[in-house]
Amino acid sequence: LLGTPAKTFCCAGCGFCGKVLVWPYEMSHWLNLKIILEELLQRGHELTILISSRSYLFDYHNPSAFNFEVIFVSGTREDAEKKVNEFLDAAVNIMPTLSLWESAKLFQNFFLEATEQFEEVCRKAVYNESLMEKLRETKYDVMVIDPVVPCGELVAELLGVPFVNSIRHSVGDIIERYCGHLPVPPSYVPVSMGGLTDRMTFMERLKNMMFTLFFNFVLQQYDFQFWDQFYSEALGKRLCSIVINYMIILTEIWLIRTYWDFEFPRPYLPNFEFVGGLHCKPNVCLQEMEDFIQSSGEDGVVVFSLGFLVKNLTEEKANFIASALAQLPQKVLWRYKGKKPATLGANTRIFDWLPQNDLLGHPKTKAFITHGGTNGIYEAIYHGIPMVGIPMFADQPDNIAHMKAKGAAVEVNFNTMTSADLLSALRTVIYQPSYKENAMRLSRIHHDQPIKPLDRAVFWIEFVMRHKGAKHLRPASHDLTWFQYHSLDVIGFLLACVATVIFTVTKCCLFSCQKIGTGKKKKRE
Amino acid sequence: LLGTPAKTFCCAGCGFCGKVLVWPYEMSHWLNLKIILEELLQRGHELTILISSRSYLFDYHNPSAFNFEVIFVSGTREDAEKKVNEFLDAAVNIMPTLSLWESAKLFQNFFLEATEQFEEVCRKAVYNESLMEKLRETKYDVMVIDPVVPCGELVAELLGVPFVNSIRHSVGDIIERYCGHLPVPPSYVPVSMGGLTDRMTFMERLKNMMFTLFFNFVLQQYDFQFWDQFYSEALGKRLCSIVINYMIILTEIWLIRTYWDFEFPRPYLPNFEFVGGLHCKPNVCLQEMEDFIQSSGEDGVVVFSLGFLVKNLTEEKANFIASALAQLPQKVLWRYKGKKPATLGANTRIFDWLPQNDLLGHPKTKAFITHGGTNGIYEAIYHGIPMVGIPMFADQPDNIAHMKAKGAAVEVNFNTMTSADLLSALRTVIYQPSYKENAMRLSRIHHDQPIKPLDRAVFWIEFVMRHKGAKHLRPASHDLTWFQYHSLDVIGFLLACVATVIFTVTKCCLFSCQKIGTGKKKKRE
Question: Which residues in chain B are closer than 8 Å to A271, comparing Cβ atoms?
Answer without folding.
Answer: 265
